[in-house]
Amino acid sequence: MTTPPESTRVQCPICLELFSWCDDELYRRVVDSSGARWVRADLSHINNPVKKQDRRARCYVRCPNTSKENKEHYLPVSYRDHGTPVVIGLVGRSRSGKTHLLASMIHEALRGDLRHHGLVFEPADELRHSAFQREIDQLMLGNKLEATEFLNEDVTTYLLLRSNNGPTRPLVFFDVAGEDFVTSGPQGLGGQFVLGATALMFVDHPAGAVPALHGAGRVSTNPAFSGALERIGRREDARDLPVAVVLTKADELRYEAPIDHWIRRDDLREPLDAAQFRAESRDVYAFLDQHEARPMLDVFERFHRSTLHVVSATGAEADDNNTFPRGVRPARVLRPLLALLAMAGLVAHPQAAEVGR
Amino acid sequence: MTFAGTNFDTLTGRDPAGRPASWLVRVLEPEPAGDSALVTHRVKTHDGTTLLRRSLPLTGNPLDASIAEMLLDNEIRALVRLHARYPRPVPELPRIVGYDFDSSTPFVLLEPHVGKCLDGSPRTLLIDERRRFMVGVFRALAHLAAVDLVHGSVGLASLCWDGATAQLVNLEHAVNPGEPTRSGLSRNGSVAHTGDDVRAAGRMVYELVTGKRVELGAVPDLTAQPEQLATLLRGVFAARPADRPTALEVLERLNDRDPLLPPTDTTALMRAGYDRFDTLRPVKATGPRQQQPPPSPPVRRFAPRPERKPVPLLPLALLVFLAVAVVVALVVTR
């Protein structure tokens, strides 16, 4: 038996094992009266090439799951069609706002809000995205989302990024429960995506990051960051990972200088400007330093290319009924994503090379 | 929620420092608020204190509602900053008591304005009153500029007056210098500048003194006016905001000697963080265009001016007398 060429070998984002990509054997998800299951997809009887391409795009390839640590899992057939996928993961403690941030971010990205930067997104995994889209819809209706399931191994959503001036690239997003970074389960599967991620978003909220601000007299600690950083430290390329450090729920600080300036700034349509990313990072760094938010600063300092951001996924706090009474008004949720894509080399603009340096 | 057995409703929100707070209030009557898009009511708290509550107008139009929210947000932001930066109240500016911007009925609570708010129509002031009025307006602007705020809608409709103090109210258009105006009314891409406030105040002064109306954007002919007015308003209508005098300079022209309140310098608390960041990520000298992060707009920081003490007359007279006596004695002894 010969080893397949390296170009056909793929790292599974879920189990992180390398395997030979083979899309001769395709699968599709069937849901009927006997439940949901994966079945072999036979496209051989379709002779219309356009139709065949359409049907193929909805199929999946089974990961051989060689380590047998994870449950059986499948990847979209397009996973290998557009080069090496870009894996973006969110790291943060429980209730730090990761899920709300990702939902608002993907909502705006799919709406086309980054097209001024030549970036257009489309869902590429019908199954996973439809589940995530339901979350997005709930949030946009003004409902607070449930906490993320503990020890969820799967990808949250999978998109294709079509760049005006560059190749199309698959984008994989991971959002897991905050506890997974602290207690990663008997086999260490929880939050293990950090071992294979291309770029990371470290997320914390004011109550956790700057507890002293409103009189909660304790020092900020962040076991989720510590847990993730400890695992990332095993990677040779650890310090070169593009990282965005994000202060979520910044609507709670909307009247605190200098957060008040950045949270209101509407600059998504302006040309990419590394100096603006630096200016925001500088202000947020000084603010966090003033309030001794050491865990967020440590993350920022640890990586060669990193940015700091303030965002609000919802625009306000949910009320006692877990709803947002005046609707959801995200602010600046695409800036961290734009920074990561620029740092990962996916934004065709001369300034992109300077972002985060 | 109505408090059991009373006519008081509970308002839940935050105090100016951002801590959770609540108030028991009974709404009295609407309060005139000039051309403000927000609704103002006089309310009484359970301990008998009278306050003003500013809130969103009822509207079925989502765009109008969104603009009104933005205006209320602007006002809370400006008032919270004034509270944080000025340890003592600035008489020429309103004072916040509390706010809420998260619930379905957001609001800001204020201490009552001084005197009565002007209705926007030109008023005739006595000569003595005019100077005090003008000083009040420019003192308000100087205090705003010192904490990086542009009022954005200076005019008679945003002023209250009690015969001694002018108070500049309705901060719903207030933003930082350099920020786009967030009123929702202007989409021409212009950014706020403290010079725009000075111009608007100058226009108001001109109308007040001459009784002649100046159209928005028009430049009145100062050469045809008495020298005192022309000197006071010199440069105020310059095309470039940066070429206009500051509110402080106008106050000097008005010969206002009362010290302005010095704001707390909050950036000093962040200086160590800025320095550490600049060490970690120094600005690149070469490569693609890099610019220094936009600094806070230049604002004159003031220290309290020493009050001018009157020269004591008796010792002075004694000194003169002694000097003359010495001279006379010298002449006589020759």
Any guess at the CATH architecture of the largest domain in chain A?
3-Layer(aba) Sandwich
Biggest sheet, spatial arrangement of strands of chain B: 1-2-3-4-6-5
Mean pLDDT of chain B: 85
What's the rounded overall pLDDT mean of chain A? 91
Classification by helices and strands of chain B: alpha+beta
| SSE pattern of chain A, N- to C-terminal | EEEEHEEEHEHEEEHHEHHHEH
Q: Write down the domain tally of chain A.
A: 2
Instruction: Outline the biggest β-sheet of chain B.
Output: 6 strands, antiparallel
Shape of chain B: globular
The shape of chain A is globular
Tally of DSSP helical segments of chain A: 9
Write structural notes for this entry.
The complex is a heterodimer of chains A (357) and B (334). Chain A folds into two domains: 6-80, no CATH class; 86-354, P-loop containing nucleotide triphosphate hydrolases (Rossmann fold), CATH 3.40.50. The longest helix of chain A is centred in the C-terminal third of the chain and has 17 residues, at 274-290. By secondary structure, chain A is of the alpha/beta class. Chain A has nine helices and 13 strands. Helix content of chain A is 26%, strand content 19%. In chain A, a hairpin with a 2-residue loop joins β3 (26-32) and β4 (35-41). With 334 residues, chain B is of the alpha+beta class. Chain B is 31% helix and 14% strand. In chain B, the strands form two sheets. In chain B, strands 1-2-3-4-6-5 form a six-stranded antiparallel beta sheet, with helices on one face. In chain B, strands 7-8-9 form a three-stranded antiparallel beta sheet. In chain B, a hairpin with an 8-residue loop joins β2 and β3 (39-45). In chain B, α2 (127-146) runs antiparallel to α3 and α2 (127-146) packs antiparallel against α5. The radius of gyration of chain B is 25 Å and the shape is globular. Chain A binds chain B through residues 213-215, 251, 254-258, 260-261, 264-266, 274-275, 278-279, 281-283, 285-290, 301, 316-317, 319, 325-326, 350-351, 353-354, 357, and chain B through 17-19, 69, 73, 76-77, 80-81, 84, 101-104, 106, 176, 179-180, 182, 266, 269-274, 276-278, 280-281, 283-284, 287-294.
